[in-house]
Amino acid sequence: MSADSDVSPQASYIQHHLVHYNNLGEKQSLIADFSVINYDSIFWAILTGAIAVLVMWLAARRATAGVPGRFQGFVEMLVDMVDQQARSIVPSEATRKFVAPLAMTVFTWVVLMNALDLVPVDLPHVVFHALGFGHEPADPLYYHRILPTADLNIPMGMSLGVLLLMLYYGIKIKSPGGFVKELFTAPFHAHGFAAVCLAPFNFLLNLVEYAAKSVSLGMRLFGNMFAGELIFMLIALLGGAWTGWNVMSVGLGLGHIVAGSIWALFHILIVLLQAFIFMMLTLVYIGQAHEGH
User: Fold this and answer.
1) What separation in angstroms does the CA of 204 have from each of 128, 186, 289?
2) Is 224 a catalytic residue?
3) In whole angstroms, what separates CA 168 from the centre of its chain?
4) Does 153 participate in catalysis according to the annotation?
5) 189 vs 19, 86, 166, 179, 180, CA distance in Å?
6) pTM for the full model?
7) Which residue in 216, 246, 249, 261 is the catalytic one?
8) Surface-to-core class of residue 212, CB atoms within 10 Å of its CB (0-12 exposed, 13-18 middle, 19+ buried)
9) Tell me, what's the pLDDT at 9?
10) pLDDT averaged over consecutive 10-residue blocks of the chain (293 residues)?
């Protein structure tokens, strides 16, 4: 008996929905595998990013000096919120000219990507099947995940971008020599021979700090959205247990509707909160690049 025959229908359903449409046609086995390209994650990430840019462009184009409409007022409220957070965290005005729009882009982009989790989990597969794609596992389109932030590669890629900005502003503000010097002289400050002895430990701690910031930033977003996606799949199994007009099926069907509605409403808060946290940590980490130990 093969290993696949031992898997329950429920487990098979969830495993199917956790595989990406990629160049391998199967689930990624390693945490970091640069030979795997998840086309679905890239497509939806680029699409939501383009929508975020389009929304901001439309708001700027339709902006008026008079009484703003609802759309302009909503966008201005978001811009003011992000600008206030940037002013309170990033000390350099020159840096804020770039970082504040970046934070606004990150917030709207992550919100839109996270919001894709509110789309019914089976809808992409239904659409592809209706178009004549993905009826067999051998067809790459048989697999498709719509939520980019539940793909570890997307949040980690964004966090690596934040890491590069941290290093860039650290070098720009402190000068290359000052930045390298701080790597070896902080957080344990000393003089003379003691400074030489502590230099390797300081350097190691700084590397760990940068790595921890990047990993935690990406893993926090990924973990929360991946968990939410799994809960939606578990709720979908309630509806999938329908076998007819009997007490058990009707109860599970009603449970599917009630649980799905409640979790969707609660998940709206998670969608917004995770985007806000990612934006805030981006500002905090870039702001810390201006500070010395």
Assistant:
1) 49, 10, 18
2) yes
3) 22
4) no
5) 49, 30, 22, 15, 14
6) 0.86
7) 216
8) exposed
9) 77
10) 59 82 75 81 94 89 80 88 92 88 93 93 79 68 85 93 93 92 87 88 94 94 94 85 75 86 93 95 91 66
List the catalytic residue out of 92, 206, 220, 249. 220
Residue where the block lists tokens 């990624």: 28
Residue with tokens 């905090």: 284
Residue 80: C-alpha distances to residues 72, 264, 288 (Å): 12, 28, 22
**Beta bridge pairs of residue 56:** none
Q: How many Cβ atoms sit within 10 Å of the Cβ of residue 89? A: 19
Residue with tokens 């007819």: 244
Which amino acid belongs to residue 132?
G
Q: Count of residues for the chain?
A: 293
- Residue pair 258/235 in contact (Cβ under 8 Å)? The answer is no
3-class secondary structure for the chain? CCCHHHCCHHHHHHHHHCCCCECCCCCCCCCCCCCCCEHHHHHHHHHHHHHHHHHHHHHHHCCCCCCCCHHHHHHHHHHHHHHHHHHHHCCCHHHHHHHHHHHHHHHHHHHHHHHHHHCCCCHHHHHHHHCCCCCCCCCHHHCCCCCHHHCCHHHHHHHHHHHHHHHHHHHHHHHHHHHHHHHHHCCCCCCCHHHHHHHHHHHHHHHHHHHHHHHHHHHHHHHHHHHHHHHHHHHHHHHHCCCCCCHHHHHHHHHHHHHHHHHHHHHHHHHHHHHHHHHHHHHHHHHHCCCCC
Out of 224, 246, 249, 261, the active site residue is 224
Judged on CB neighbours under 10 Å (0-12, 13-18, 19+), 189 is exposed
pLDDT at residue 14 in the model:
83
**202 is known as an active-site residue:** no
pLDDT (0 to 100) of residue 3? 45
> Nearest 5 degrees, angle CA 111-CA 25-CA 10?
75
Instruction: Give the C-alpha separation, 183 to 269, whole Å.
Output: 39
User: Rg of the chain's alpha carbons, rounded to an integer?
Assistant: 24
